[in-house]
Every structure is written in C-alpha cells, then in structure tokens.
Amino acid sequence: MIKHDNSSRELIAFRIGEQEFCVDIMSVREIRGWAPATVLPKSPPYVRGVINLRGAILPIVDLAARLGFQPPEPTVRHVIMVAQVGTQVVGLLVDAVSDILSVTDDAIKPTPDVASDMAKTFVRGVLAIEGRMISLIALDNVLPTLEPIAA
Question: Which residues form the CheW-like domain (predicted)?
C-alpha cells in the first residue's frame, strides 16, 4: 500500500478536562451551546439523554463518560458537537472546542502499545503539535450501537 504523507486533513480539536482530543472536521455538522437533555430510561450511562434539534431527536453522548473520565456537570461553557457517522447523527458533549488543525497523515502517530485495549478502541492515533498531545478519536467506536427497542 502506498501512503501519501503529504495528504492533508482538517481536524477539530476540543477539550475534555485537561485532555485534548480531535475528530475529522468532515464528521462535525455544527457546534452549539449546551442544552439540558431529556433522560431516556435504560440508556447507557454515557448517554445524557436527547434534545430537540430543529425537530429531530438528537441523542447526547457525554464524551468524558464514554472515554472513562469523570463526567462533568454541564454548564453554559460546555458545547455540543453535532457529529455524523454513517447514517447516525449524535451530539457529543465536550468542555470546549479549541481550534481547527490542518495536519498531514504522517503527523498522526499510532496509539502507543502501552495503551489499554479500551484506549486503542477509541483513539486512532496521537498528534504532537506545538507542545500539545492531541488524541484522534475514532468516532465510529464512540457512538452507541443502536439496539432495537423491545415493544
């Protein structure tokens, strides 16, 4: 396989606690302020609930809880990144969006072997940029699997 090291991609960086993460900007549809979510019964602990987004029901995934961090108590400073993976649209609760990064594929280093299997499931790679360590999130592994609801 030929790898083109000069192919560039844009990533959107965000914070959860003291950690920085990023996702491909093409999967982010919009960024909006925090709005309280309506809790759904029997949903996974990392699903905050749902909000009404212009008539569509949008599930909100607490990315801190999903990645195994202490979930925050959301404030007006928190934001929801509306992301699409395949046909699924979901809101990702994060502390703040920091910036947009333009990186080449060779800047993304593999997840270290010492990382847990759980970390390798969620993190595609790591970027070292301007003294910052930013983990590239595998959104398709972060989103909850949709199970049919028993009637």
Answer: 8-148
How far is the C-alpha of 90 from the C-alpha of 127, rounded, in Å? 25
H helices then E strands: how many in the chain? 3, 11
Give tens-digit pLDDT for 5-23. Answer: 467 899 999 999 989 999 9
**Rounded Cα distance, 78 and 34, in Å:** 6
Pull the structure tokens for residue 25: 């900007």
Give the Cα separation of 32 and 82 in Å (integer): 8
- 100: tokens are 């947009």
Contacts for 106 with CB less than 8 Å, ≥ 6 apart: 3, 5
Q: Which amino acid is at 48?
A: R
- Structure-derived torsion over alpha carbons of residues 119, 111, 138, 1, reported in degrees to the nearest 10: -140
Among the listed residues 66, 77, 70, the one whose alpha carbon sits nearest the alpha carbon of residue 137: 66
Q: How far apart are CA 142 and CA 67, in angstroms?
A: 8
pTM to 2 decimal places: 0.86
- CB-CB contact of 66 with 46 (8 Å): yes
